Amino acid sequence: MSGKLLDDLGQLQRAVIEVVWELGEASVHQVRKRLSSKKKLAYTTILTAMQKLEKAGWLRHRNQGKSYIYLPTRTREEAGDSSVHKFMERMFDGDALLMFQHLMRQSKLSDMELGELRKMIDEKRKETKK
């Protein structure tokens, strides 16, 4: 699979992969129908984008009659993990604590959000004690 990051995809490719993630699997027609509500796009434009995504390792296909049904090769979460990891490496020298401290200083978090973070920290502590 290609190491290409989600951030490296063009606007159309990103929109296409988002539709495929949303639907779980999709034909060119289904993707075109979803994206055409925002901008009229030719069938061949969507087909080309999906073929490029397949070549880059983001999609794979299976035959269904005369059509191809495209499926994602990784989840949205997996793609996001790669992007976040690369960002953390590039901007914070791979230091998760430094990145977290920066995010905490830059964010205005509600009491509820801070409570959620506390729960996540407590769960992480339990994991590391096992």
Give an overview of the whole structure.
The chain folds into two domains: 6-72, Arc Repressor Mutant, subunit A (Orthogonal Bundle), CATH 1.10.10.10; 95-130. The chain has a two-stranded antiparallel sheet. It is elongated. By secondary structure, the chain is mainly alpha-helical. The model has no long low-confidence stretch (mean pLDDT 91). 62% of the residues lie in helices and 9% in strands.
Please tally the β strands and state the result: 2
Query: What is the CATH top level name of the largest domain?
Result: Mainly Alpha
Distance between the termini: 33 Å
Radius of gyration: 19 Å
Count, helices: 6
Give the biggest sheet: 2 strands, antiparallel
The CATH superfamily title of the largest domain: Winged helix-like DNA-binding domain superfamily/Winged helix DNA-binding domain
CATH fold node name of the largest domain: Arc Repressor Mutant, subunit A
Tell me the domain tally.
2
**Strands side by side in the biggest sheet:** 1-2
Keywords, separated by commas or semicolons:
2 domains; Arc Repressor Mutant, subunit A; two-stranded antiparallel ribbon; 130 residues; mainly alpha; elongated; 9% strand
Short description:
With 130 residues, the chain is mainly α.
